[in-house]
Amino acid sequence: MKMKVILAAAGVVLAVSGCQRTVGGFEPLQPAPLSPAPVGGVTSSQLPPAGATQQSPSQFPSAPGATADSSPEDAAKKETALAASAPTVTRESLIGRWSVNSGGSRCDVFLALTKWTGGYRAASRGCVGDAASVSAWDVQGKQVILSDNNGNQVARLYQSANERFDGSLSGGQSISLSR
C-alpha cells in the first residue's frame, strides 16, 4: 500500500513539473519577429456619383486570352482548319484533369477510362451551360467528342497545341481544353 502511495505521489509531481514554463533553467525558444514587407505607393481617385450612368456590359472588352464567341459560320471555318492540321489523338493521352474555357467561364473536366454511355466517364466541376452537362468522352480519329448522360454530343475538339484542344459546342460556341 505504501508503494502505491509513493508511485501516485511521484506521478503527480511529474505531471505538475511538465506544466512549468522552464525546464532545467532554460527558456523555451521563441521565433524571431518578422520584418514588415515593403508597401508600394497607394493611389486614390474619386468614385463616380451614385446613380451616374454606367457602361453597358457590351462596352467592356473581352478578358485577356478569351475570345468572344463568333458566329456559327466562323466557328465551322475554324473547326475545319483545326481538323486539317490536327494530329491523331490517343485515349491514354487524355486521362486526367483538364481546364475548360467556354463562353468566358473556366471550369475543370476530369476524363477517365471507365466505360460509360457515349464512351468513357467524364466529370465536370464548376462548369456552366453546355459544359456542365459533360459526363462522357471518346476519341474518334483526330476528334475528341464530349457527350452528356444520354450519349448526345455536347462538343467536338481537335488538338491545336501540346496539351491543348480547341473546338465547338453543339450550339456553335467555342470551347477549349488545356492543362
- What is the CA-atom radius of gyration, in angstroms? 31 Å
Which whole number gives the mean pLDDT?
A: 77
Strand order of the largest sheet: 1-2-3-4-5-6-7-8
CATH topology of the domain at 88-178: Lipocalin
The name of the CATH architecture of the domain at 88-178 is Beta Barrel
- Provide the low-confidence segments as ranges: 56-69
SSE pattern: HHEEEEEEEE
Can you count the helices? 2
CATH class of the domain at 88-178: Mainly Beta
Report how far apart the termini are: 72 Å
- Number-wise, the strands total 8
Cα shape: extended
Largest sheet, described in full?
8 strands, antiparallel, barrel
In terms of DSSP E residues, the strand content is 25-35%
Percent of residues in helical segments? 10-25%
Structural class: alpha+beta
Highlighted features:
alpha+beta; Lipocalin; eight-stranded antiparallel beta barrel; 17% helix; 31% strand
List the helices and strands and how they pair.
Blueprint: H1 2-17, H2 72-85, E1 96-102, E2 105-116, E3 119-125, E4 136-140, E5 143-147, E6 153-161, E7 164-169, E8 174-178
Antiparallel strand pairs: 1-2, 1-8, 2-3, 3-4, 4-5, 5-6, 6-7, 7-8
